[in-house]
Amino acid sequence: MASIGFIGLGNMGGPMAANLVKAGHRVTGFDLVPATLTAAEAAGVVLAASPAEAATGAEIVITMLPSGKHVLSVYEAIVPAVEPGTLLIDSSTIDVESARKAHALAAAKGADALDAPVSGGVGGAVAGTLTFMVGGGTDAFARAEPILAAMGKKIVLCGEAGAGQAAKICNNMILGISMIAVSEAFVLAEKLGLSHQALFDVSSTSSGQCWSLTTYCPVPGPVPTSPANRDYQPGFAAALMLKDLTLSQEAAASAGATTPLGAAATQLYAAMVDAAQGGVDFSGIIHRLRAGAML
Ligand code: NAD
User: Fold this and answer.
1) What is the pLDDT of residues 210-251, one digit of tens each?
2) Pair 246, 262: CB distance under 8 Å
3) What total number of domains does the chain contain?
4) Would you call 132 exposed, middle or buried from its count of C-beta atoms within 10 A (0-12, 13-18, 19+)?
5) Which residues line ligand 1 (CB under 6 A)?
6) Protein residue with its CA nearest to atom 21 in ligand 1
7) Domain-located, residue 295
8) How large is the ipTM?
9) With 49 labelled, which of 1, 3, 217, 221 sits at a CA distance of 20 to 30 A?
10) What residue stretches are annotated with the 6-phosphogluconate dehydrogenase NADP-binding domain (predicted)?
11) Peptide bond connecting 235 to the previous residue in cis, omega within 30 degrees of 0
């Protein structure tokens, strides 16, 4: 059993903290939103009055926050409060540069740090089946593994500081692009008089096979559990896809990588969000393609 500080008890952090409590850990949590605190307390989280209070005396501090600027401001507050040797794990999805700055802030205090963003969404957070993509040292990773195992089913060490965020950004750029590719194919099939089921039966067992087709199929019918069957309720909202694609484009610009399809996907999701559809599942991009949306 470990003593864990948990900062950011929102849609993801709330159920993740609850799973740590269920696994027998002592969890002290903080969030700015009162409703998240009420839910966390009901799940057995001890409430703190500030990020620094949640971190004080903790062996491990986990953050699950909206963006890099939130993570860095919380690290400015908690690093002075922790003892050298404390392990800081940031599971937010943030830019690689901020992740590396967070590692450096921790190192200056003699604390260990890991960037450990997740995939699996709110459903995975509740079920404790998240995938963690981890960047940092092997000793810190070995220490974190049993803790992360209470919240996830797959934990991958991707490399040094920032490598977890890099893996997350690259994976979600593939996802954003592939969902558009699959949606375009269904729209073309409709125009050609080919049924959704026929395209699915062929492509799901052919070279067009991918997760966006076989798990998250953007038309109702072929995959009964996909958001298309529940009027495109998320799932994974288009606004979150836009956030991750934007991070991919910032990373591509700073690293000098050429990502023309990533850039196009970012523009298409930005237009979807501008059209007040940011809360729709990202597979709802098919509606815009069907309506003739272009870049
Ligand atoms: P959320 O907005 O529900 O939760 C974030 C929480 O952080 C909020 O409750 C907010 O009040 C809190 N917060 C912000 N600043 C704070 C501060 N200074 N101190 C304490 N708390 C503060 O967001 P979420 O859906 O839980 O996502 C969290 C992170 O996980 C994001 O980086 C997101 O990109 C990533 N993520 C989300 C999903 C998903 O499906 N929701 C999936 C994978 C990754």
Assistant:
1) 999 999 999 999 999 999 999 999 889 999 999 999 999 999
2) no
3) 2
4) buried
5) 7-13, 30-33, 36, 51, 64-66, 70, 73-74, 92-93, 118-119, 121-122, 236, 240, 243
6) 31
7) no
8) 0.99
9) 1
10) 3-159
11) yes
